[in-house]
Amino acid sequence: MTTAANKRSVMTLFSNHDDIYCHQVRFVLAEKGASYEIEIIEPNTINEQLMELNPTGSVPTLTDRTLAIHTPYIILEYLDERFPHPPLMPVFPVERAEKRQLMKDILDSWYAAIREAEHNKSEEKRAASLNHLKEQLLASAAAFQPYFMGNEFSLVDCYIAPLLWKMHTLGVKFTGTGSKNVRNYMELVFNRESFRDSVRREGDNTFTEDK
Questions:
Q1: DSSP letter, residue 148
Q2: Which helix (H) or strand (E) is 69 found in, with range?
Q3: pLDDT above 80: residue 108
Q4: Which residues lie below 8 Å from residue 153, measured CB to CB, with a gap of 6+?
Q5: Residue 99 has pLDDT above 80, yes or no
């Protein structure tokens, strides 16, 4: 693993276009203004360099000199510590723990739902999963204030924004009670330069939403 990582003098992200976890990492890298190379791994293909670094072949995988990481939340926290400005986590331990718990809850609930919607072969079940997820987000509309659970942009938003972008690309429209808060958040974060950079890697940087 060390030898393979040493072959690259620049931080490298092994990613694919569609994976929500890869999008998280691209967003944080852009937010930090970090210089890095990207290697696109197409689904169901084998990349020898990636397999040497990470035998599971999973993405995202990040290499930085002798280090190779392939667990998404560890990658994000590493990047926040590796590039301390701008900080994406609070300074105080209690607040940091609260953010970590919130991110874990998002992964266990909302990320699980979007993955079920993505991979379910039944169109009816896919639609039901997306609708249920949309209802959960609308029920949490008060948390978008203007960023998620706070006035300052944080690592939590680097979890929420790729989730909402995925829903947007799947054709989900937010309407009804609570939708204004969610749509305002989407417009705010999707128009952030770092977010635009993260989706340019996918060849799409457009977002329009009816008011």
A1: B
A2: strand 67-69
A3: yes
A4: 88, 147, 192
A5: yes
